[in-house]
Amino acid sequence: MADDADIAADRAAQAAADAVALHLRRPRPVGRPTCRVCGDVIPAERRDALPWARTCIDCARAEERERRHA
Predict the structure, then answer these.
(1) Which terminus of the chain, N or C, has less C-beta within 10 A?
(2) Alpha helices by DSSP H, the chain
(3) What is the pLDDT of residues 46-66, one digit of tens each?
């Protein structure tokens, strides 16, 4: 027979599963199709891997080098 702790745990697990399902149904952001620095198209592979990417890989690397040396 389930006690209050078991019922609470089951409800928490169901709430977590519902939250994950809701998150997975949301549309993924696609980011900007062009680099905000150079204007070149951001390759689909990069947008798939990092939907929030706002720069192409070359500009992202250049920005990272600048941050390291600043």
Answers:
(1) N
(2) 4-25, 44-49, 57-69
(3) 988 888 889 999 999 999 999
